[in-house]
Amino acid sequence: MTSRITFILAFIMTAALQVRADNILWYQQPAGEWMEAMPAGNGRLSAMVYGGIARERIALGEISLWSGKPDASNNDICGKDKLDEMRRCFFNGDPERGNELGNKYLNGLGRSFGTHLPLGDMVADFRYPCGQIRNYRRSIDMDSSVVAVTFSCGDTDYRREYIADYPDDVIAMRYTASRRGAITATFGLNLLRKAGVKATKDGLTLAGKVDFPLHGAGGVSFCGEVRLLPDGGTVSTTDTTVTIE
Known about the structure:
Helix content: under 10%
Strand content: 35-45%
Strand order of the largest sheet: 2-7-8-9-10-1-14-13-12
CATH superfamily of the largest domain: putative glycoside hydrolase family protein from bacillus halodurans
Oligomer: single chain
CATH architecture of the largest domain: Distorted Sandwich
CATH topology of the largest domain: Beta-galactosidase, Chain A, domain 5
Number of helices: 2
Order of helices and strands: EEEEEHHEEEEEEEEEEE
Radius of gyration: 24 Å
């Protein structure tokens, strides 16, 4: 077991987190769905933190995860003559016909339209010593943008912190306990996209493609890394998970 785990969704480490006591939104239970989760984001990377006790779930996103591909022929069905005809309908008091022509000529062919899609979840499964969970709190500091989850189990206090850093372009997460050797966790990825996941003692790597056949062929390729930085303890792996204890 270890008493502290720091890990980052990228390649570099950020500075220690500082949390102010004012201007905080807080809740006494974990999120039950995505809309209830706490957001952390920097304009490119995003994380929605559920704050589960036995299983932490963090829904991940990235700005360029789009399906589809460029298609120069998507709008070939509309030209200047069709646009002039639509305008005449609207100007001559026939909006119904104008809308009909607009739906026919302006919607494009949609062979590979594409859409932005979520990446999936990072999950952390925890094992705790015997004891009742007490004093649970899930919060976001509106001044520092730090998301925090705190609770006690037995004689140990646990704290998780999350922040999306803009200059270093990472999502940083820190897990700590008041007693050394009190954190045991297994980390993995439940991705919604086609991707391969590989676990090493340094963390998790992923690579895949944003494939969404409903909107046609194409999709961007992507890769990423979850880097784990434990303070002591032992590390073991399977093909797709990392356990720190």
